[in-house]
């Protein structure tokens, strides 16, 4: 009998390593290995003392092993989903982490600068036209000429403005003045 126990012990040693692991390092395969080892021990008890000796023990062992298996599976699934989420997050924030990375391409920057310059030019033209009509109004008041409309004596100036998007708009500026007002307003036609 000692020879068979030594033989069983030598076979059990490599598989007993699953009992040396912590609960966090157990795998589903380890749980199956534990079930196999417990099953072998239960068979020895049945062989030595009869089936009645383990009748109440077997269902409890099976239940504990099933719970351990489910718990281990849930831990593995959570671990996998955590790893996947971390990988997705690393991929998403990889581009955002570099503060020196340019936000715009060179072409986009050129287009923005071009549009800004066009808008500045258009603003300058509109300011010049407003100044022209204000000067006319002041001149008419200084000479004592009755003014019904500032634009009666001069043709309406028109400017064509084009934006970088290719749209073209024509602005007509007219000065709306009356005899009693001293302010001039710019109207877009």
TrEMBL record:
InterPro entries according to UniProt: DZIP_RILPL (IPR051241), RH1 (IPR034743), RH2 (IPR034744), RILP_dimer (IPR021563)
GO molecular function, one term: small GTPase binding
UniProt GO BP: cilium assembly; protein transport
GO CC, any one term: cytoplasm
PROSITE patterns per the UniProt record, alphabetical: RH1, RH2
Record CDD domains: RILP-like (cd14445)
NAD listed as a keyword: no
Domain RH2, chain residue ranges per copy: 101-171
Designated name of the protein: Rab interacting lysosomal protein
Sequence ranges assigned to domain RH1 in this UniProt record: 14-102
Chain intervals with Polar residues compositional bias: 78-94
Coiled-coil ranges (or none): none
Region entry Disordered, spans: 78-103
Pfam family, one: RH1
Keywords, in A-Z order: Coiled coil, Protein transport, Transport
